[in-house]
């Protein structure tokens, strides 16, 4: 089931906790650091597949974001039985926000940032009207901690991507590890949402 939403400028940038959807409030200086190498491998694969072509640099939120459907396995986030322990691990790991480390292995250069860079386009002429719209110069990704089963062969992760007003999306991804590495299952992603308008600048969803 796909949830279509409109991303407003206030929702993206007007809040003091932009992109902290459904997160537990934690004192920034006391955040635990997310340090699971296999988790970073899963997230790196998902981000690489989502990065728009010809993109050389991206930004990633410096803290985790679990998305907004983590509280239940009913509805759009109903997972197969063999993912139940991975979901429980996902839920527990994402009860509190964690700070991300420099553990990604990506094709694009990346920087960890507390919030996206926002720029206002210059006036076309000195006396020209100043536009109200603001833009993000680089796609800004948010990711969760990754939930695994005990054997670390089933994984659940949330990845969101934002590139400005009416340019955003996110979903929960379910993957299985085989001899060739991590692969999404046919029923993935779950609870996928996106802004109403999509264009060349919008990130592709991982597949």
Global morphology: globular
> Which structural class do the helices and strands define?
alpha/beta
Distance between the termini: 16 Å
The portion of residues assigned to helices is: 10-25%
Number of helices: 3
Oligomer: single chain
Uncertain spans: 1-27, 198-207
Which strand-content bin applies to the residues? Answer: 25-35%
Output the radius of gyration: 17 Å
The major beta sheet can be summarized as: 9 strands, mixed
Give the total of beta strands.
11
Report mean pLDDT, rounded to a whole number: 79
- List SSEs in N-to-C order: EHEHEHEEEEEEEE
Features:
207 residues; alpha/beta; two-stranded parallel sheet; 29% strand; globular
Characterise the protein shown here.
The chain is of the alpha/beta class and 207 residues long. The chain contains three helices and eleven strands, in the order E-H-E-H-E-H-E-E-E-E-E-E-E-E. The protein has helices at residues 9-14, 37-50, 84-93; strands spanning 3-4, 32-34, 57-61, 98-100, 109-113, 135-143, 147-148, 154-164, 167-178, 181-184, 190-194.
């Amino acid at each position: 089931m796909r949830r279509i939403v409109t991303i407003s400028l206030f929702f993206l940038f007007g809040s003091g906790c932009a992109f902290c959807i459904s997160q537990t409030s934690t004192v920034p200086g006391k955040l635990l650091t997310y340090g699971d190498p296999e988790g970073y491998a899963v997230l790196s694969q998902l981000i690489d597949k989502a990065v728009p072509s010809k993109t050389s640099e991206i930004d990633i939120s410096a803290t985790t974001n679990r998305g907004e459907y983590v509280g239940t396995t009913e509805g759009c986030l109903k997972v197969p039985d063999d993912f139940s322990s991975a979901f429980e691990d996902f839920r527990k790991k994402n009860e509190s926000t964690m700070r991300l480390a420099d553990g990604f292995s990506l094709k694009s250069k990346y920087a960890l940032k507390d919030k996206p860079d926002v720029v206002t386009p210059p006036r076309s002429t000195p006396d020209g009207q100043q536009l109200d719209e603001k833009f993000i110069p680089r796609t800004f990704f948010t990711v969760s901690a990754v939930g695994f089963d005990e054997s670390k062969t089933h994984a659940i992760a949330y990845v969101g991507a934002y590139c400005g007003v009416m340019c955003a999306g996110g979903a929960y991804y379910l993957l299985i590890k085989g001899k060739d590495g991590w692969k999404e299952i046919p029923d993935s992603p779950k609870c996928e949402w996106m802004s109403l308008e999509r264009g060349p600048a919008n990130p592709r969803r991982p597949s």
